[in-house]
């Protein structure tokens, strides 16, 4: 499913990479061959590849449209970014992101608001593009809304550690839009818009990063929840306590992930997890003491 319509809100998946494989150890140090075997009945080789000891993942954003406003959530990796410490996204030259945006009938000028669940390099990349050796905002008419806690956390690290913070992404994909006067800093429970066309708001979901937020889109008593990196892979539905290597506070991340999965399963909220290939708009059901994608149960 690539498009979700709830009331007047339309949400589209915007792919940069629809599917790729990564070594298991890039995400999960504690995943075992027994864990993979136990889940092979519902997660095929697109998700778990025990022979190559790799897992399938995607890099995808969401576009939310309502009442004449167009919101981009999480802008993936971006092009030409030098990431020597994150090789899967080093110096990308992909046309997919902007072509897929165009396929939705949109140009960069049409984006009114950019939201980022957090400021890791694979969620802020297209905020800027390289032009004549300088990083300039990709979306020239957009306000970029950042949770102040998340921004302050990385800004203080940037002051101490320099431009290597977040593999260089704070310097090349966040600061340029701030310096262009195109950023707004908000509380972690900020309401972005509300009215007859629906509501879009933030809620705190800390753990993966210091000020990680989820994006809620609500209309007509339905809800969709962009969870960012609170959930990376469907194996975590079976293993909510599996630690993701980049989680800043693993215990808090597990608590957040469990809470969000329970919310989606129990309230019927749509789960929008951009790192999950093929099921980046999904619903969850409870399965014994864990969870499954609804249609796969
Ligand atoms: Zn992240």
Automatic annotation (TrEMBL):
Keyword Metal-binding listed: yes
SUPFAM superfamilies: Metallo-hydrolase/oxidoreductase
Protein name (Swiss-Prot/TrEMBL): MBL fold metallo-hydrolase
Entry superkingdom: Bacteria
Domain Metallo-beta-lactamase as annotated: residue spans: 58-275
Gene3D superfamilies: Ribonuclease Z/Hydroxyacylglutathione hydrolase-like
InterPro entries for the chain: MBL_superfamily_lactonases (IPR051013), Metallo-B-lactamas (IPR001279), RibonucZ/Hydroxyglut_hydro (IPR036866)
UniProt keyword Zinc, yes or no: yes
Family: Belongs to the metallo-beta-lactamase superfamily.
Keywords: Hydrolase, Metal-binding, Zinc
């Amino acid at each position: 499913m690539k498009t979700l319509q709830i009331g007047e809100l339309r949400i589209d998946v915007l792919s940069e990479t629809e599917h790729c494989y990564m070594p298991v150890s890039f995400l999960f140090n504690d995943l075992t061959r027994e864990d993979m075997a136990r889940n092979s009945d519902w997660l095929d080789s697109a998700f778990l590849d025990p022979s190559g000891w790799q897992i399938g993942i995607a890099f995808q954003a969401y576009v939310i449209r309502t009442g004449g406003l167009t919101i981009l959530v999480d802008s993936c990796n971006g092009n030409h970014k030098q990431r020597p410490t994150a090789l899967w996204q080093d110096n990308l030259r992909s046309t997919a992101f902007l072509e897929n945006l165009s396929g939705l009938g949109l140009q960069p000028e049409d984006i009114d608001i950019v939201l980022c669940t957090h400021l890791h390099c694979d969620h802020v990349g297209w905020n800027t593009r390289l032009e004549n050796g300088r990083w300039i905002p990709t979306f020239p008419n957009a306000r970029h809304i950042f949770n102040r806690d998340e921004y302050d956390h990385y800004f203080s690290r940037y002051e101490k550690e320099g431009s290597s913070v977040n593999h260089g992404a704070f310097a090349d994909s966040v600061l340029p839009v701030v310096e262009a006067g195109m950023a707004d800093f908000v509380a972690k429970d900020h309401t972005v818009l509300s009215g007859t066309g629906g509501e879009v708001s933030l809620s705190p979901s800390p753990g993966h990063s210091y000020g990680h937020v989820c994006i809620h889109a609500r209309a007509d008593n339905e809800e969709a929840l962009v969870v960012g990196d609170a959930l990376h892979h469907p194996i975590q539905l079976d293993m909510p306590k599996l630690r993701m290597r980049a989680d800043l506070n693993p215990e808090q991340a597990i608590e957040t992930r469990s809470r969000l999965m329970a919310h989606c399963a129990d309230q019927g909220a749509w789960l929008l997890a951009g790192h999950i290939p093929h099921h980046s708009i999904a619903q969850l059901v409870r399965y014994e003491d864990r969870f499954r994608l609804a249609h796969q149960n």
